[in-house]
Amino acid sequence: MSNRTYLYVPGDRPDLLAGALTRGADALILDLEDSVVAANKSQARDVVVDWISHLGDGHDRCEVWVRVNNSPELLNRDLHALGRTAAIRGISIPKIQGPETLEEIEHHMGEDWSVIALIESAAGLLAAPLIAASPRMGRLALGETDLMAELGMTQNPPEQALIAVRVQLVVASAANGLDAPIAPVTTDFRDLEALRSSTRDLRAMGFGARSAIHPDQVEVINEVFTASEEEIDEARRIVAAADRAAAEGSGVFVDLDGRMVDEAVVRRARRQLAETTRRGDAT
After folding, report:
1. Which of 1, 113, 176, 209 is least buried, going by the fewest C-beta atoms within 10 A?
2. Domain span including residue 53
3. Co-location of 25 and 153 in the same domain
4. How far apart are CA 110 and CA 14, in angstroms?
């Protein structure tokens, strides 16, 4: 299943971890990095490992990931503590610069782990196609705050400047057959209408999910990345018409609105229906 929401939970907050699986997110990212101050790194590591060790069946519809620290000493400690556990889906690696990071830690990773690569630097952005091609890669994600600072962008840059950055991740993901990338967080968790609007724009741009830093953001993100009844109906019509056209020996056809429909459009419709069925949204 392609996740829509990735909810960050600070690793040093057992009170927040206690109810994290009930927040409605498709996936949790237990954070050992930015949300944990240096003095609490060891404590957070212990809390997260203990929480993971007590996971029962409640996470069968909610993947669990861990965002590790991307510095040699801390990264090795984090991976050693996680101990290749099968209870997590994989790790999120922040500030990744290139695929060599994944090659260096391969022997520390659980057999079935995947990686979320968080692109937060100019070097990481330029290397995104190579990172996306790594065998362990599950999904690319965009961390805009650090990237904007490195690029010298203002806090509120022109939208076209961000589009140029965002599209690079969409292209790298598609070119390597990955699920559409994870859109960046927004720190204003109180303005849910602004969240809805920006998430719609990111979906239209080709993103397939978004990270959340607060449980209140989850429902909005899920809503935006869930196909509407109208979208599902249109996909069904396209697939049915394509099947009829194929039976008649034609690879293209004209829909009810007079638009030419080819195989690329049909593939997208089939993917949407398959994803809807897996998630259980279809009725």
Report:
1. 1
2. 5-224
3. yes
4. 24
DSSP letter at 58 equals G
Side chain identity at residue 251, one-letter code = G
214/249 same-domain check: no
Q: Decide if 88 contacts 113 (C-beta within 8 A).
A: yes
Instruction: Answer yes or no: do 26 and 159 share one domain.
Output: yes
pTM here?
A: 0.86
The Cα-based distances of 231 to 99, 215, 235, 273 in angstroms read 37, 27, 6, 10
Average pLDDT, the chain: 89
The rounded distance, in Å, linking the Cα atoms of 146 and 142 is: 10
Q: What pLDDT score does 57 carry?
A: 55
Phi (first) and psi of residue 243, to 5 degrees: -65, -40
Cα 278 to Cα 26, 138, 273: the distances in Å are: 13, 18, 9
Per-residue exposure over 269-283, b if at least 16 CB sit within 10 Å of its own CB, e if not? beebbebbeebeeee
- Give which of 39, 111, 14 is closest to 30, Cα–Cα: 14
The two structure tokens encoding residue 225:
């990345």
Number of domains in the chain: 2
What CATH number is given to the structural domain containing 209? 3.20.20.60
Of the residues 224, 243, 265, the one at which a domain ends: 224
- Verify that 263 and 205 share a domain, yes or no: no
**pLDDT band at residue 240 under the 50/70/90 scheme:** confident
